[in-house]
Design brief:
Layout lengths: L20 E4 L3 H12 L4 E4 L11 E4 L2 E4 L5 E2 L6 H9 L5 E4 L3 E4 L4 E4 L3 H11 L4 H19 L6 H6 L4 H8 L3 H7 L15 H14 L1 E4 L4 H13 L3 E3 L4 E7 L2 E7 L4 E3 L2 E4 L3 H8 L6 H9 L6 E8 L11 E4 L10 E5 L1 H4 L9 E8 L10 H17 L9 E7 L1 H8 L30 E3 L10 H18 L4
Parallel strand pairs: 1-2, 1-14, 2-10, 7-16, 14-20
Antiparallel strand pairs: 3-4, 5-9, 6-9, 7-8, 11-12, 12-13, 15-18, 15-19, 16-17, 17-18
Helix pairs in contact: 1-9, 1-15, 3-4, 4-8, 6-8
Bound molecules: flavin-adenine dinucleotide.
Flavin-adenine dinucleotide binds next to helix 1, strand 15, helix 14 and helix 15.
């Protein structure tokens, strides 16, 4: 992992009293937004409360092992896809491993490999389900068209209108009768965290087609390297980034923003503020006036996405990990529930540089039985999940327990502590029909000069989407031409 270069970060004493734009939070959306604005000549400050930038796209090091905190791969990095185009447009210096197959779905009685090629995947499914051959043709064709309408922002498109009120399960029911095929086609729902019967078709299509058309990518050296590449470019373009600098207030005057107050009382002025942070925090803690009550009430009724328990293991070279395929492990053949799956990967199988010579990493993400508010004792939860997850992994890796050299675990509480995402939400608002597309929060807010970027706004969660979100927010700000 590249060391942070001190030249990329500004000390508090080096900050200007006024910027064109201040961005609250150095998540990927905030960094991308800031870099596009800096490239257009704006004077930009990004203030981040954590001591490293990246939000959920960070890595940490223990005894020579580099663990990715949350994000384990990125979609849409091919040259025609959103991240690929952004990398090109900004001139980011970053290399990716292309993951092919991109995923596996492992059920107790069968498993399916998902290649990084939509046509190949469709053909494999047609061989498994010959009776559904034509329906599979129709399904992938329709979803690809829907995906194009979504990324081209065609809000009035007849296809978006057709699917905007359908859950993904309802859409699958329209196309297929075979329950096993429907289970497979819904198998990656965990990437946006709402069950197939709840998740919006639009949200699922956005994520699924993006991955299937272009596969998934892993930044060489770990996910922090993706963040570092953006930071490097941002600061080269003259952007300021201050770390360990929590924004306590967004300052307002007459229904417009005028700046921010950092923890420790320092006030910095700007006519444009972009919030890349949890939307509840933005509208209920950071802002104390200038927003209509009905808007605050709407925010109060919206629902966060799910969160996870995470286990990071650094293990010895002697263990044979070939029994662990990257992908979703389900405890039943269906139906899906929130607490019957895990996601397991061996990042060192993709990038050996993440561990000391010949050592290996196992990363496991576990969905939880209890909601955030029902959990009383987080330490107890962590200990219980650590034990049961190691037991589970031992089924695939005999002798695992004695070969663990480093062990770290995180709960939703940990995710919240490091990113301030409400309830440790992995994906911002839940991706349900009433909270996606035009029902998700807009980049433009009721407060003049305040914009949103990130997974609490459109188009939704995941690195590819928040890159798009940050880019779009920058374009809106430049178009509004509020700052000169
Ligand atoms: C366990 C897990 C696994 C995931 N895996 C993947 C994956 O493999 N691929 C994928 O594409 N997506 C994945 N996601 C989803 C993805 O990580 C998120 O959707 C995305 O990173 C959100 O980016 P963001 O820019 O919106 O904000 P965030 O990453 O939430 O960043 C917000 C930033 O704002 C800072 N901040 C908050 N409040 C303040 C304040 N008051 N002042 C200053 N700074 C503040 C935070 O510290 C943080 O750095 C995963 C998420 C989780 C939790």
């Amino acid at each position: 992992m590249a060391k942070f270069d001190a030249k990329n970060f500004s000390g508090r004493s080096q900050l200007n009293g006024k910027y064109d734009v201040i961005i609250v939070g150095a998540g990927i959306a905030g960094l991308i937004c800031g870099t596009f604005l800096a490239k257009s000549g704006k004077k930009v400050l990004i203030a981040e409360q954590h001591y490293i930038p990246g939000g959920y796209c960070t890595s940490f090091k223990r005894k020579g092992f580099i663990f990715d905190s949350a994000v384990h791969h990125i979609g849409g990095c091919g040259k025609w896809s959103i991240v690929g185009r952004c990398v090109n447009e900004l001139g980011l210096e970053i290399d990716f491993h292309h993951l092919d197959p991109m995923d596996n779905l492992i059920f107790p009685s069968f498993s399916v490999e998902i290649p990084a090629d939509i046509d190949k995947y469709k053909e494999n499914l047609q061989l498994m389900f010959p009776d559904e051959k034509e329906c599979l043709d129709g399904f992938f064709k329709e979803l690809t068209k829907l995906y194009r309408s979504i990324i081209n922002n065609k809000a009035d498109s007849p296809l978006i209108n057709k699917y905007k009120d359908l859950t993904y399960l309802e859409t699958l029911d329209c196309f297929f009768s075979n329950p096993k095929l429907k289970t497979i086609l819904a198998g990656q729902w965990g990437y946006i965290g709402s069950l197939p019967g709840e998740v919006s078709t639009i949200g699922m299509c956005q994520m699924l087609i993006n991955y299937l058309k272009d596969g998934a990518y892993f930044p060489v050296g770990g996910t922090q390297e993706f963040t570092n590449a953006i930071v490097e470019r941002y600061t080269e373009l003259g952007g300021h980034l201050v770390l360990s600098a929590k924004v306590e207030k967004i300052l307002t005057d007459d229904s417009k923003v005028i700046g921010v107050a950092l923890a420790g009382e320092k006030e910095i002025k700007a006519d444009v503020i972009v919030s890349n942070v949890d939307a509840k925090q933005t509208f209920t803690t950071l802002i104390s006036s200038g927003i209509d009550n009905s808007f605050i009430e709407k925010i109060g009724k919206m629902k966060e996405s799910i969160s996870f328990y995470l286990l990071y293991l650094g293990v010895s070279a002697d263990l044979n990990l070939s029994g662990l395929k990257r992908g979703f492990y389900y405890q039943t053949d269906g139906p899906y529930t929130h607490d019957n799956w895990k996601y397991i990967s061996v990042p060192t199988a993709v990038d050996k540089s993440l561990a000391p010579e010949n050592k290996q990493i196992i990363f496991t993400l576990v969905s939880l039985k209890k909601a955030y508010d029902e959990t009383v004792n987080w330490e107890e939860l962590k200990d219980d999940y650590t034990e049961s997850t190691i037991d589970y992994l031992t089924r695939f890796v005999p002798g695992l327990r004695n070969q663990i050299e480093v062990i770290e675990a995180a709960t939703p509480k940990t995710l919240k502590r490091y990113t301030l995402n409400s309830k440790g939400a992995a994906y911002g608002w839940a991706v349900t029909n009433d909270q996606i597309a035009s029902n998700r929060l807009s980049h433009i807010t009721p407060l003049k000069g305040l914009y949103l970027a990130g997974h609490w706004t459109t188009p939704g969660p995941g690195i590819s989407s928040v890159v798009s979100s940050g880019w779009k927010a920058a374009n809106i700000i430049l178009k509004d031409n509020i700052t000169n």
